[in-house]
Protein backbone atom coordinates (compact mmCIF):
# COMPACT_ATOMS: atom_id res chain seq x y z
CA UNK A 1 0.00 0.00 0.00
CA UNK A 2 1.33 3.52 -0.79
CA UNK A 3 2.57 5.60 2.08
CA UNK A 4 -0.44 7.93 1.74
CA UNK A 5 -3.53 6.92 -0.17
CA UNK A 6 -5.21 9.55 -2.29
CA UNK A 7 -8.51 10.53 -0.58
CA UNK A 8 -10.50 9.48 -3.67
CA UNK A 9 -8.86 6.06 -3.66
CA UNK A 10 -9.45 5.65 0.07
CA UNK A 11 -13.08 6.72 -0.34
CA UNK A 12 -13.76 4.19 -3.09
CA UNK A 13 -12.05 1.41 -1.12
CA UNK A 14 -14.17 2.20 1.93
CA UNK A 15 -17.35 2.29 -0.15
CA UNK A 16 -16.45 -1.05 -1.73
CA UNK A 17 -15.90 -2.53 1.71
CA UNK A 18 -19.14 -1.35 3.29
CA UNK A 19 -21.23 -2.68 0.40
CA UNK A 20 -19.32 -5.88 -0.39
CA UNK A 21 -18.36 -7.28 3.02
CA UNK A 22 -21.83 -7.32 4.65
CA UNK A 23 -23.43 -8.73 1.51
CA UNK A 24 -20.87 -11.54 1.27
CA UNK A 25 -21.33 -12.45 4.93
CA UNK A 26 -25.13 -12.33 4.62
CA UNK A 27 -25.18 -14.41 1.45
CA UNK A 28 -22.43 -16.96 2.18
CA UNK A 29 -23.22 -17.46 5.88
CA UNK A 30 -27.00 -17.51 5.18
CA UNK A 31 -27.75 -15.26 8.14
CA UNK A 32 -31.26 -14.26 6.99
CA UNK A 33 -33.04 -16.28 9.69
CA UNK A 34 -31.00 -14.58 12.42
CA UNK A 35 -29.80 -11.31 10.96
CA UNK A 36 -31.31 -9.72 7.82
CA UNK A 37 -28.89 -7.88 5.54
CA UNK A 38 -29.59 -4.55 7.21
CA UNK A 39 -28.51 -6.00 10.59
CA UNK A 40 -25.30 -7.41 9.08
CA UNK A 41 -24.60 -3.95 7.64
CA UNK A 42 -25.05 -2.37 11.08
CA UNK A 43 -22.66 -4.90 12.62
CA UNK A 44 -20.15 -4.26 9.82
CA UNK A 45 -20.28 -0.54 10.59
CA UNK A 46 -19.42 -1.24 14.23
CA UNK A 47 -16.61 -3.66 13.33
CA UNK A 48 -15.05 -1.12 10.96
CA UNK A 49 -15.06 1.59 13.63
CA UNK A 50 -12.05 2.76 15.66
CA UNK A 51 -12.91 0.54 18.64
CA UNK A 52 -12.34 -2.71 16.74
CA UNK A 53 -10.79 -2.35 13.26
CA UNK A 54 -9.01 0.82 14.35
CA UNK A 55 -7.51 -0.96 17.35
CA UNK A 56 -6.48 -4.06 15.39
CA UNK A 57 -5.11 -2.28 12.30
CA UNK A 58 -4.38 1.31 13.33
CA UNK A 59 -2.12 2.21 10.38
CA UNK A 60 -4.47 0.80 7.74
CA UNK A 61 -7.49 2.34 9.46
CA UNK A 62 -5.85 5.76 9.47
CA UNK A 63 -4.97 5.39 5.77
CA UNK A 64 -8.54 4.55 4.77
CA UNK A 65 -10.50 6.79 7.12
CA UNK A 66 -8.74 10.07 6.43
CA UNK A 67 -10.49 13.28 7.55
CA UNK A 68 -11.55 14.06 3.97
CA UNK A 69 -13.00 10.56 3.54
CA UNK A 70 -14.87 10.71 6.84
CA UNK A 71 -16.27 14.14 5.95
CA UNK A 72 -17.62 12.81 2.64
CA UNK A 73 -19.07 9.73 4.33
CA UNK A 74 -20.79 11.88 6.95
CA UNK A 75 -22.35 14.11 4.30
CA UNK A 76 -23.81 11.13 2.45
CA UNK A 77 -24.89 9.56 5.74
CA UNK A 78 -26.79 12.70 6.76
CA UNK A 79 -28.66 12.76 3.47
CA UNK A 80 -29.46 9.04 3.73
CA UNK A 81 -30.87 9.26 7.25
CA UNK A 82 -32.85 12.42 6.46
CA UNK A 83 -34.64 10.65 3.61
CA UNK A 84 -35.05 7.48 5.66
CA UNK A 85 -36.72 9.33 8.53
CA UNK A 86 -38.94 11.26 6.12
CA UNK A 87 -40.13 7.97 4.62
CA UNK A 88 -40.58 6.51 8.11
CA UNK A 89 -42.80 9.46 9.00
CA UNK A 90 -44.86 8.95 5.84
CA UNK A 91 -45.25 5.25 6.73
CA UNK A 92 -47.16 6.16 9.90
CA UNK A 93 -50.86 5.45 9.41
CA UNK A 94 -52.47 7.73 11.97
CA UNK A 95 -55.92 7.30 10.44
CA UNK A 96 -55.90 3.58 11.17
CA UNK A 97 -54.57 4.25 14.66
CA UNK A 98 -57.45 6.64 15.28
CA UNK A 99 -60.01 4.17 13.90
CA UNK A 100 -59.02 1.57 16.51
CA UNK A 101 -58.05 4.19 19.07
CA UNK A 102 -59.13 2.40 22.27
CA UNK A 103 -57.22 -0.81 21.63
CA UNK A 104 -54.33 1.07 20.02
CA UNK A 105 -54.05 3.55 22.89
CA UNK A 106 -54.11 0.84 25.57
CA UNK A 107 -51.59 -1.39 23.82
CA UNK A 108 -49.27 1.39 22.67
CA UNK A 109 -49.51 3.06 26.07
CA UNK A 110 -48.41 -0.01 28.01
CA UNK A 111 -45.88 -0.98 25.31
CA UNK A 112 -44.28 2.45 25.73
CA UNK A 113 -44.66 3.27 29.42
CA UNK A 114 -43.57 -0.08 30.88
CA UNK A 115 -40.20 -0.41 29.10
CA UNK A 116 -39.63 3.31 29.63
CA UNK A 117 -39.96 2.89 33.41
CA UNK A 118 -37.93 -0.33 33.50
CA UNK A 119 -35.28 1.24 31.25
CA UNK A 120 -35.13 4.38 33.40
CA UNK A 121 -34.49 2.28 36.52
CA UNK A 122 -31.78 0.36 34.66
CA UNK A 123 -30.26 3.65 33.44
CA UNK A 124 -30.19 5.03 36.98
CA UNK A 125 -28.39 1.89 38.19
CA UNK A 126 -25.86 2.03 35.36
CA UNK A 127 -25.16 5.68 36.08
CA UNK A 128 -24.24 4.87 39.69
CA UNK A 129 -21.81 2.24 38.46
CA UNK A 130 -20.51 3.98 35.31
CA UNK A 131 -20.81 7.77 35.59
CA UNK A 132 -18.85 8.03 32.34
CA UNK A 133 -22.04 7.15 30.46
CA UNK A 134 -23.45 10.61 31.17
CA UNK A 135 -23.09 13.07 28.31
CA UNK A 136 -21.21 16.37 28.81
CA UNK A 137 -24.31 18.55 28.28
CA UNK A 138 -26.96 16.55 30.15
CA UNK A 139 -28.36 16.39 33.64
CA UNK A 140 -28.83 13.00 35.29
CA UNK A 141 -32.58 13.30 34.81
CA UNK A 142 -32.16 13.92 31.06
CA UNK A 143 -29.85 10.93 30.79
CA UNK A 144 -32.21 8.61 32.68
CA UNK A 145 -35.20 9.76 30.62
CA UNK A 146 -33.24 9.35 27.39
CA UNK A 147 -32.10 5.79 28.12
CA UNK A 148 -35.55 4.92 29.42
CA UNK A 149 -37.04 6.06 26.13
CA UNK A 150 -34.27 4.18 24.31
CA UNK A 151 -35.56 1.00 25.94
CA UNK A 152 -39.07 1.79 24.67
CA UNK A 153 -38.18 2.43 21.02
CA UNK A 154 -39.77 0.29 18.30
CA UNK A 155 -38.23 0.39 14.81
CA UNK A 156 -41.16 0.73 12.43
CA UNK A 157 -39.26 0.27 9.10
CA UNK A 158 -37.37 -2.83 10.28
CA UNK A 159 -40.53 -4.15 11.92
CA UNK A 160 -42.24 -4.01 8.52
CA UNK A 161 -39.39 -5.99 6.94
CA UNK A 162 -39.52 -8.65 9.65
CA UNK A 163 -43.30 -9.01 9.44
CA UNK A 164 -43.05 -9.28 5.67
CA UNK A 165 -40.59 -12.14 6.16
CA UNK A 166 -42.98 -13.84 8.60
CA UNK A 167 -45.85 -13.40 6.14
CA UNK A 168 -48.05 -11.27 8.40
CA UNK A 169 -47.43 -7.71 7.18
CA UNK A 170 -50.67 -7.40 5.19
CA UNK A 171 -52.80 -9.43 7.63
CA UNK A 172 -55.12 -7.84 10.23
CA UNK A 173 -52.60 -8.78 12.93
CA UNK A 174 -49.75 -7.13 11.04
CA UNK A 175 -51.75 -3.95 10.55
CA UNK A 176 -52.58 -3.85 14.27
CA UNK A 177 -48.89 -4.14 15.15
CA UNK A 178 -48.15 -1.27 12.76
CA UNK A 179 -50.81 0.86 14.49
CA UNK A 180 -49.26 0.22 17.91
CA UNK A 181 -45.79 0.98 16.58
CA UNK A 182 -46.98 4.14 14.81
CA UNK A 183 -48.48 5.63 17.97
CA UNK A 184 -45.37 4.78 19.97
CA UNK A 185 -43.19 6.39 17.30
CA UNK A 186 -45.07 9.66 17.64
CA UNK A 187 -44.77 9.56 21.43
CA UNK A 188 -41.06 8.75 21.27
CA UNK A 189 -40.29 11.76 19.06
CA UNK A 190 -42.37 14.03 21.28
CA UNK A 191 -40.44 12.87 24.35
CA UNK A 192 -37.16 13.24 22.47
CA UNK A 193 -38.06 16.83 21.63
CA UNK A 194 -38.74 17.46 25.34
CA UNK A 195 -35.41 15.90 26.31
CA UNK A 196 -33.61 18.15 23.83
CA UNK A 197 -35.31 21.35 24.99
CA UNK A 198 -32.65 23.98 25.49
CA UNK A 199 -33.75 26.75 27.87
CA UNK A 200 -31.41 29.18 26.11
CA UNK A 201 -33.13 28.48 22.77
CA UNK A 202 -36.60 27.64 24.01
CA UNK A 203 -38.19 30.54 22.15
CA UNK A 204 -36.65 29.37 18.86
CA UNK A 205 -37.94 25.84 19.43
CA UNK A 206 -41.44 27.05 20.26
CA UNK A 207 -41.43 29.24 17.14
CA UNK A 208 -40.33 26.27 15.01
CA UNK A 209 -43.14 24.06 16.34
CA UNK A 210 -45.69 26.86 15.95
CA UNK A 211 -44.52 27.56 12.40
CA UNK A 212 -44.63 23.87 11.58
CA UNK A 213 -48.18 23.64 12.90
CA UNK A 214 -49.29 26.59 10.79
CA UNK A 215 -47.61 25.43 7.58
CA UNK A 216 -48.50 21.73 7.80
CA UNK A 217 -52.17 22.11 6.67
CA UNK A 218 -51.08 24.33 3.78
CA UNK A 219 -48.43 21.83 2.70
CA UNK A 220 -50.92 18.98 2.89
CA UNK A 221 -53.40 20.90 0.76
CA UNK A 222 -50.72 21.75 -1.78
CA UNK A 223 -49.38 18.19 -2.05
CA UNK A 224 -52.87 16.75 -2.36
CA UNK A 225 -53.55 18.97 -5.35
CA UNK A 226 -50.58 17.94 -7.52
CA UNK A 227 -49.53 14.78 -9.34
CA UNK A 228 -47.45 12.06 -7.72
CA UNK A 229 -44.13 12.97 -9.34
CA UNK A 230 -44.59 16.59 -8.25
CA UNK A 231 -45.35 15.32 -4.73
CA UNK A 232 -41.95 13.66 -4.58
CA UNK A 233 -40.18 16.85 -5.64
CA UNK A 234 -42.18 19.20 -3.41
CA UNK A 235 -42.02 16.71 -0.54
CA UNK A 236 -38.21 16.73 -0.67
CA UNK A 237 -38.19 20.53 -0.58
CA UNK A 238 -40.51 20.47 2.45
CA UNK A 239 -38.26 17.84 4.05
CA UNK A 240 -35.13 19.96 3.68
CA UNK A 241 -36.88 23.09 4.91
CA UNK A 242 -38.11 21.29 8.05
CA UNK A 243 -34.71 19.71 8.73
CA UNK A 244 -32.96 23.07 8.34
CA UNK A 245 -35.48 24.92 10.52
CA UNK A 246 -35.47 22.34 13.33
CA UNK A 247 -31.67 22.30 13.39
CA UNK A 248 -31.52 26.11 13.47
CA UNK A 249 -34.01 26.10 16.35
CA UNK A 250 -31.78 23.87 18.46
CA UNK A 251 -33.63 20.62 17.82
CA UNK A 252 -31.79 18.01 15.77
CA UNK A 253 -32.29 18.08 12.01
CA UNK A 254 -33.53 14.47 12.23
CA UNK A 255 -36.50 15.64 14.32
CA UNK A 256 -37.54 17.98 11.54
CA UNK A 257 -37.04 15.27 8.91
CA UNK A 258 -39.36 12.90 10.73
CA UNK A 259 -42.02 15.56 11.32
CA UNK A 260 -41.88 16.51 7.63
CA UNK A 261 -43.03 12.99 6.75
CA UNK A 262 -45.68 12.64 9.43
CA UNK A 263 -48.04 15.15 7.82
CA UNK A 264 -47.87 13.37 4.42
CA UNK A 265 -50.27 10.51 3.71
CA UNK A 266 -48.83 7.21 2.54
CA UNK A 267 -51.85 6.75 0.25
CA UNK A 268 -50.75 9.71 -1.88
CA UNK A 269 -48.06 7.54 -3.46
CA UNK A 270 -48.31 4.38 -5.57
CA UNK A 271 -47.48 1.52 -3.19
CA UNK A 272 -45.02 -0.22 -5.50
CA UNK A 273 -43.12 3.00 -6.20
CA UNK A 274 -43.01 3.98 -2.54
CA UNK A 275 -41.70 0.53 -1.55
CA UNK A 276 -39.09 0.79 -4.29
CA UNK A 277 -37.89 4.17 -3.03
CA UNK A 278 -37.72 2.91 0.58
CA UNK A 279 -35.82 -0.23 -0.40
CA UNK A 280 -33.48 1.79 -2.61
CA UNK A 281 -32.61 4.05 0.31
CA UNK A 282 -32.01 0.99 2.53
CA UNK A 283 -29.85 -0.79 -0.04
CA UNK A 284 -27.92 2.04 -1.70
CA UNK A 285 -27.61 4.72 0.98
CA UNK A 286 -28.17 3.54 4.54
CA UNK A 287 -25.04 1.30 4.65
CA UNK A 288 -23.03 4.54 4.54
CA UNK A 289 -24.96 5.77 7.59
CA UNK A 290 -24.22 2.50 9.39
CA UNK A 291 -20.51 2.94 8.72
CA UNK A 292 -20.62 6.59 9.75
CA UNK A 293 -22.34 5.48 12.96
CA UNK A 294 -19.79 2.73 13.55
CA UNK A 295 -16.96 5.26 13.27
CA UNK A 296 -18.37 6.98 16.36
CA UNK A 297 -18.32 3.91 18.60
CA UNK A 298 -15.87 3.98 21.48
CA UNK A 299 -14.91 1.69 24.33
CA UNK A 300 -13.44 4.29 26.68
CA UNK A 301 -14.72 2.75 29.92
CA UNK A 302 -13.51 -0.66 28.80
CA UNK A 303 -15.01 -3.16 26.40
CA UNK A 304 -16.43 -5.40 29.14
CA UNK A 305 -18.20 -2.52 30.88
CA UNK A 306 -19.82 -1.34 27.63
CA UNK A 307 -20.98 -4.88 26.93
CA UNK A 308 -22.49 -5.12 30.42
CA UNK A 309 -24.30 -1.80 29.91
CA UNK A 310 -25.65 -3.04 26.57
CA UNK A 311 -26.81 -6.31 28.16
CA UNK A 312 -28.55 -4.51 31.02
CA UNK A 313 -30.39 -2.17 28.65
CA UNK A 314 -31.31 -5.08 26.37
CA UNK A 315 -32.77 -7.02 29.28
CA UNK A 316 -34.69 -3.96 30.46
CA UNK A 317 -35.98 -3.29 26.96
CA UNK A 318 -37.15 -6.83 26.19
CA UNK A 319 -38.62 -7.48 29.65
CA UNK A 320 -40.33 -4.09 29.81
CA UNK A 321 -41.82 -4.34 26.31
CA UNK A 322 -43.10 -7.88 26.77
CA UNK A 323 -44.52 -7.09 30.20
CA UNK A 324 -46.33 -4.02 28.89
CA UNK A 325 -47.84 -5.91 25.96
CA UNK A 326 -48.83 -8.79 28.24
CA UNK A 327 -50.70 -6.38 30.51
CA UNK A 328 -52.48 -4.86 27.50
CA UNK A 329 -53.36 -8.32 26.20
CA UNK A 330 -54.85 -9.31 29.53
CA UNK A 331 -56.95 -6.13 29.68
CA UNK A 332 -58.17 -6.53 26.08
CA UNK A 333 -58.77 -10.28 26.22
CA UNK A 334 -56.38 -11.34 23.48
CA UNK A 335 -56.08 -14.92 22.24
CA UNK A 336 -53.40 -17.18 23.79
CA UNK A 337 -49.98 -16.52 22.29
CA UNK A 338 -50.96 -13.16 20.82
CA UNK A 339 -49.17 -11.07 23.45
CA UNK A 340 -46.04 -13.18 23.06
CA UNK A 341 -45.91 -12.58 19.33
CA UNK A 342 -46.72 -8.87 19.49
CA UNK A 343 -44.34 -8.29 22.41
CA UNK A 344 -41.38 -9.76 20.53
CA UNK A 345 -42.24 -7.82 17.40
CA UNK A 346 -42.56 -4.49 19.20
CA UNK A 347 -39.25 -4.87 21.03
CA UNK A 348 -37.39 -4.69 17.69
CA UNK A 349 -35.05 -1.69 17.86
CA UNK A 350 -33.22 -1.60 14.51
CA UNK A 351 -32.51 1.66 12.74
CA UNK A 352 -34.72 3.97 14.81
CA UNK A 353 -32.75 3.14 17.96
CA UNK A 354 -29.52 3.97 16.13
CA UNK A 355 -30.97 7.27 14.92
CA UNK A 356 -32.27 7.99 18.43
CA UNK A 357 -28.84 7.29 19.96
CA UNK A 358 -27.09 9.38 17.31
CA UNK A 359 -29.22 12.39 18.17
CA UNK A 360 -28.55 11.94 21.89
CA UNK A 361 -24.80 11.72 21.22
CA UNK A 362 -24.81 14.78 18.98
CA UNK A 363 -26.63 16.80 21.63
CA UNK A 364 -24.30 15.66 24.43
CA UNK A 365 -27.01 13.79 26.38
CA UNK A 366 -25.05 10.53 26.36
CA UNK A 367 -21.35 9.77 26.08
CA UNK A 368 -19.69 7.81 23.29
CA UNK A 369 -19.62 4.76 25.58
CA UNK A 370 -23.38 4.95 26.18
CA UNK A 371 -23.87 5.40 22.43
CA UNK A 372 -21.90 2.20 21.79
CA UNK A 373 -23.99 0.33 24.37
CA UNK A 374 -27.25 1.49 22.75
CA UNK A 375 -25.92 0.53 19.33
CA UNK A 376 -25.12 -3.00 20.53
CA UNK A 377 -28.55 -3.20 22.18
CA UNK A 378 -30.22 -2.25 18.89
CA UNK A 379 -28.36 -4.99 17.01
CA UNK A 380 -29.06 -7.69 19.62
CA UNK A 381 -32.71 -6.69 19.93
CA UNK A 382 -33.30 -6.96 16.19
CA UNK A 383 -31.41 -10.25 15.88
CA UNK A 384 -33.48 -11.83 18.65
CA UNK A 385 -36.86 -11.22 17.04
CA UNK A 386 -37.17 -13.90 14.35
CA UNK A 387 -35.36 -16.72 16.24
CA UNK A 388 -37.48 -16.18 19.37
CA UNK A 389 -40.71 -16.12 17.36
CA UNK A 390 -39.78 -19.24 15.42
CA UNK A 391 -38.79 -21.02 18.60
CA UNK A 392 -42.35 -20.55 19.81
CA UNK A 393 -44.24 -20.89 16.54
CA UNK A 394 -42.15 -23.46 14.68
CA UNK A 395 -40.91 -23.32 11.12
CA UNK A 396 -44.45 -23.16 9.73
CA UNK A 397 -44.74 -19.56 10.85
CA UNK A 398 -47.69 -17.78 12.38
CA UNK A 399 -50.86 -19.90 12.86
CA UNK A 400 -53.88 -18.82 10.82
CA UNK A 401 -55.85 -18.00 13.95
CA UNK A 402 -53.27 -15.41 14.96
CA UNK A 403 -52.95 -14.05 11.44
CA UNK A 404 -56.64 -13.18 11.52
CA UNK A 405 -56.76 -12.10 15.16
Number of helices: 19
> How much beta, percentage-wise?
under 5%
Which value, in Å, is the CA radius of gyration?
A: 21 Å
SSE series: HHHHHHHHHHHHHHHHHHH
Largest sheet: none
As residue ranges, the low-confidence spans are none
Shape, please?
globular
Head-to-tail CA distance between termini: 60 Å
Please tally the β strands and state the result.
Answer: 0
The assigned structural class equals mainly alpha
Mean pLDDT: 84
List its salient traits:
globular; 405 residues; 19 helices; 0% strand
Task: Write a compact overview of the structure shown.
It is built from 19 helices and no strands. It is mainly α and 405 residues long.
Explain what this protein looks like in three dimensions.
The chain has about 400 residues and is mostly helical. The chain has helices at about 5-30, 35-45, 55, 60-65, 65-90, 95-100, 100-130, 140-150, 155-165, 170-195, 200-225, 230-250, 255-260, 270-295, 305-330, 340-345, 350-360, 370-395, 400-405. The mean pLDDT is about 85. The chain starts with 6 loop residues before the first helix and ends with a helix.
